[in-house]
Fold Omega-hydroxypalmitate O-feruloyl transferase.
Amino acid sequence: MEGTGKHGGDQLSVKKSEPVLIEPETRTHSGFFFLCNLDHMVTHSVETVYFYKAKKWGGSRDTLSDTFKQSLAKILVHYYPLAGRLRLGSDGKYNVECTNEGVLFVEARANCNMDQVDVKVIIDDHSETAGKLVYGSPDPENILENPLMTAQVTRFRCGGFALGLSISHLIADGLSAMEFIKSWSETARGMPLTTKPVLDRSILRSRQPPKIDFHFDQYAPAETSNVSNISNPFQGEQILTKCFLFDSNKLAILKSMAMEDGTIKSCSNFTALTAFVWRARCKALQMNPDQTTPLLLVVDVRSKLNPPLPKGYFGNGIVLITCPGRAGELIKNTLSFAVEEVQNGIKMVNEEFVRSWIDYLEVMGAKDFPLHSYFKVSSWTRLSIECSDFGWGEPAQFACTNLPKNSAFFLPDGKEKKGINLILDLPVTAMSTFQELMLL
């Protein structure tokens, strides 16, 4: 199997071997594994790529792949649901049958050196390039037949390699996926697990009877029409995905702008950047003043429950919150207005909100919300990407490669995480305007 993609003006060619199944080293639990309501919100996969610098690894040419395959077989004993397959129950919900079938593993070779491949190029050209470094499911339309995880190790010339992973969002959110990768890397180095996975998802079962104390009508299917109408001004234009770096200086400027009128006394990098992008996106898309542009935030609830979810909880520990907005209000008011809207939305998330959200999902039976009218923002800035050391050091570069439509994604910049990489998709003309607004 071969594929090509751009990397700095040249052609990246990747030759892939046929995939093989990696099963758990020893027989694990059988039967069905419960997925809670929070697991059902999103059914696409989390796709990531980790780049490791050139180093000499002794032994045969297969040592690199053998290290990954052998350690993967070992770690799957602890994370055994990943080796199973999805099943659809009579209630319309997914569960995992623990079949021990394993995950797909692919070896590949690239035609260039790793230093010729830049993460920003991969993000900007994700539809063409990322697919060469991340092995997608054989039948993406049939999630019941596909493995819950695939792994691809791509060797570059003169050493260096990339690890491309695809993990079903039904089995893990970004934080849990990263915790799995950390545990896998510890196993590869022959170390004990720092944190053992907690697989019991009954912690997040719905209450009986359900008790909903918050209004979630905005998520009902009847309300998910394209009320923002964002595609009309740029009908038929190509959608671009770009990466913008907000270093510590730019983030400080944003926070200063947000607080300069005295409306708010403090704000985080996340709230300042989210509010700024929300407003700038309205301008770039030339929204009319009455156009609705609700902001959808992905909020980690692990620490917001009482008691908090146990350390190592493996699953989805996130909820969605909506900050309603109209383009005219966001644009005419100062940045503090949008920041306050974001802050108020996040403040709502507490124990009762989360429990009500879980109960709402139970009543509605909703999964994979068609929220095309929303602008969705997710942040991975606190993830410990540097912990993904499989024996060849920390990743030199990292990327998330499958950005959902109408979304923005925040990734940490550098080891010290002082900056934020913003990944955003927009029509070509709107992206040009957005780039001008980024010049702080």
The chain has two domains: 2-204, 217-437. The first strand starts at residue 2 and ends at 7. Residues 189 and 371 are 42 Å apart (CA to CA).
